[in-house]
Prior knowledge:
Blueprint: H1 3-9, E1 11-19, E2 22-25, E3 31-33, E4 39-47, E5 56-62, E6 76-80, E7 85-94, E8 107-111, H2 119-176, H3 179-187, E9 200-203, H4 210-215, H5 219-240, E10 243-247, E11 252-256
Parallel strand pairs: 3-8
Antiparallel strand pairs: 1-2, 1-4, 4-6, 5-7, 7-8, 9-11, 10-11
Amino acid sequence: MSIWQKSDFAKIEIQKYSIDNTKHDYHGEKIILPPSARRLSIKFTGLSFISSDQMRFCYKLGGFEPEYSEWSNLRNVSYTNLKSGTYQFTVISQNGDEIQSQPSKPIIIIKKPYLWQRLWFQILVGLIIVGVAALIVWIKIQRMRRYQIELENKVEERTHDLKLEKKKSERLLLNILPAEVAKELTEKPGQTIAKKFPNITVLFTDIVGFTNMSDGMTAEEVVTMLNKMVSLFDERTKREGIDVEVKGKGKMKTYFL
Length: 257
């Protein structure tokens, strides 16, 4: 049998195809499937001068299945739920004398993707996710920095308040106790301070007629007068080398000789 006869006995023709329930005649064009297409059916046949009823076929959808199908008398094939991408459909025929044809000219089948299946869309979504994640991290860092600054300000404010309270306490001690004793209490808190003096003189003083005198004076004038008297008294005791301790509401002074 000649080569021409072999190829003529196994000629393949693609007749029709249908997408879901819509049928189309095939004229060699690319088959474009919309993203929503669920089923693709292809109808083909083989031409033989001997007996086309005895012909068998095997087919392959490149990109979907790696090998050709088993030989069959069926002249149509269906594929469902194809993923987006490009496929090539080819058919091989065999006549009753088991003469096989070469694979048919590939039919290009393109399944369009949904918008969210496109590469550029996935890249864009990935960039958006990365950007949002980076923004969330940045916001958290800024919040932590603001919290740190607020905490530092509170600590600084509290430290300032403590310093003011310490100064007030020191001034109060200086108004009640001698400077040396107040300093020791400040520098050594909690420590008992005791000194021994072999000779002590206690002087009680009073201002005669102070009540009547102060009735006609303002509070500022009274304080100014008393402060002047006590200051003069303190200057004299310092010149004499006498330690003085003031106690009580009255101006009681203790002399340590």
